[in-house]
Amino acid sequence: MEITISRTKCFCGIFGITNHKNAAMMSYYGLHALQHRGQEASGMVTHDRENGKDVFRIIKGEGLVSEVFDDFDEWQPQLTGNAAIGHNRYSTTGSSNSRKNIQPFIVNYHSGNLAVAHNGNLTNDTKLRKWLESEGSIFQTTSDTEVILHLIAKSKKKSQIDQIVEALDFLEGAFSVVILTDNYLVAARDKLGFRPLCLGKLGDSYVVASETCAFDIISAEYIRDIEPGEVVVIPLIDGDSELESRALEGKNGERKQCIFEYIYFSRPDSMIFGHYVDKIRRRLGKILARKYPVLPVKPDEKVIVMSVPDSSNTAALGYARELEKMGVDARFEIGLLRSHYIGRTFIEPGQENREMRVKIKFNPVKGVLKDKIVVVVDDSIVRGTTSKQLINLIREAGPKEIHFRISSPPIMHSCYYGMDFPSKEELIAFKMDGNVDAIKDYIGVDSLSYLTIADLQEAVKEDNPDDYCTACFSGEYPTRVDFNFTKEHYEV
C-alpha cells in the first residue's frame, strides 16, 4: 500500500448514542474525547421525528471538533433529536483533501434514512467498488466507507437490519462501524476485531464509542466491548429497551486485535480489548528496562529517563520505575516540552521544513539534560527523519550520552487495516534491512534498542498471543490484502 505520510497518524474515532434528549451535546463531548484519533475533520448526524416523519440532520466540516462545532448557538438548534452518531476523521483510504469524504455519510434509500461512520480500512474495497460500479452504482466519494452504503442499498433483504448484516458480511479487513437508521442504532466490528468498539450506558441511553474515554467525559458506564464479528442492534425508543446481538457470517471466535492501539493510538485512560491502556504501556516500559537497561559506569551517576510527549509518557514512567527496582539511580524527568498550540495548516511538506517542524513542536529542558546520561523513550520509529531531528535537538541541550529505547519492534511492513504508515520502502527499518546498528548511526544516538514481538506479547500475557495483529512488524497479514492497491487510485 503506497501511502506517503511522514509519520504514523491516528485514524478515526466513532461515537453513537440513543434515547437522550441532548444527544447532539453528548456526541460533541464524546467526539472531543476521541479527538486524538483524528484531527482532519469531524461530523455528526442526529435523528429526530417531526410531524410523524423521520428527519436526519447533519453538520460536518474540516478541522477539530471545537472548530467544526465552534458556535453552540448555531449548531445546537440544528442538531435536534434523541439519537446521534459522530465521527472524527483521519484519512486512510480516500483523499484527505476532499470534503466529500468527511463522515458520517448519509443517504435516503428505499428502506428509509441511513447514516454510517467507520473506523478502519477495508482490504477488499477495490474489488467491491468495481463490482458495484458494474452493477450501476455511482460513487460520490473516494472513501471505502461508501461501499457499505451501496451494499446495504443493493440488498434484497426485507428487513433493514438484515440488509445491514448482509452488507457487513461482504466486507474484509478492519471495520468498527456505527450506523443510524430511522429505528435503530447499529454498532458492529469486523470478524477479527482489529479496531476497538465498546458499549456503555447513560441512564436509559445506550452509548457506543471507539474508546471508553468517551464514556468518562459524559459519565456513562462501560458495559462491555462489542465482540469481533458482533452486530449490536439498539432500538430508538424511550425506556430501557432490549438489545439484539447478531453474528456476522464466518465468525469463529478468532481475534486479531491491533496491538498498536496499546503502543500509540489509544488514550492511556481508555480501556480497550479488556485492558487499560495505561497498564499495558507501563508494562511495555518495564519490559524495555529489564531487557535493555541503561546502566551508568560510575556509581554516583544518575540516569535521566524522558519521554517524547505524549504517547510515550507512560512507557517512560514504567522504564524509569523498573530501573529503580534494579538498583539504578534513575529518575523520570520532563526533558521535552511540547507545544499544544501548533496550527494545523502551518506545517508544510518538504525536507527543508522538517527541522523547524520539530523545533516548533518540542523544546528541550536544558537544565534537566545538560551533562546527564539520558534515556529517550519513544513508542516507535517510522521513517526515522523525525527521530533524527529530535535527537539533534536534544543533543543541543548538552547531555553526556543519549540512549534511545523504543516500546515497539521495528516497523518493517505497511498496514492494510487502518494505520496510515508509509510504504515499506520509506520505513527506516525496512530500508536498513532491520539492522538496528545502522538505524542507530542514522539517528545519531549512543545506543538503540527495540522491543521484540515476543516482548509485546508478554505485555498482554493474560491473553492468547495469537489474539493480536502484529503484521506491521512481522509482515504476516491475517486476511487477504490487495498488495497492488495504492492510495492514489482514489485521490480526487
What's a concise summary of this model?
The chain has 492 residues and is α+β, with helices and mostly antiparallel strands.
Quickly list its features.
492 residues; 27% helix; six-stranded antiparallel β-sheet; 2 domains; alpha+beta; Glutamine Phosphoribosylpyrophosphate, subunit 1, domain 1
Walk me through what this model shows.
The chain is an alpha+beta fold. The protein has two domains: 12-263, Aminohydrolase, N-terminal nucleophile (Ntn) domain (Glutamine Phosphoribosylpyrophosphate, subunit 1, domain 1, 4-Layer Sandwich); 274-462, Rossmann fold (3-Layer(aba) Sandwich), CATH 3.40.50.2020. 27% of the residues lie in helices and 26% in strands. The chain is built from 17 helices and 24 strands. Strands 3-2-4-1-10-9-11 form a seven-stranded antiparallel sheet. Strands 5-6-7-8-12-13 form a six-stranded antiparallel sheet, covered by helices on one side. The chain has a five-stranded parallel sheet with strand order 18-17-21-22-23, sandwiched between helices. Strand 12 and strand 13 form a beta hairpin. Helix 9 crosses helix 10 (313-325) and helix 9 crosses helix 16 (453-459).
CATH hierarchy: architecture of the largest domain: 4-Layer Sandwich
Mean pLDDT, all residues: 90
CATH level 1 class label of the largest domain: Alpha Beta
Terminal CA distance: 18 Å
Biggest sheet record? 7 strands, antiparallel
- Helix- and strand-based class? alpha+beta
User: In what range is the share of β-strand residues?
Assistant: 25-35%
| Strand arrangement, major sheet | 3-2-4-1-10-9-11
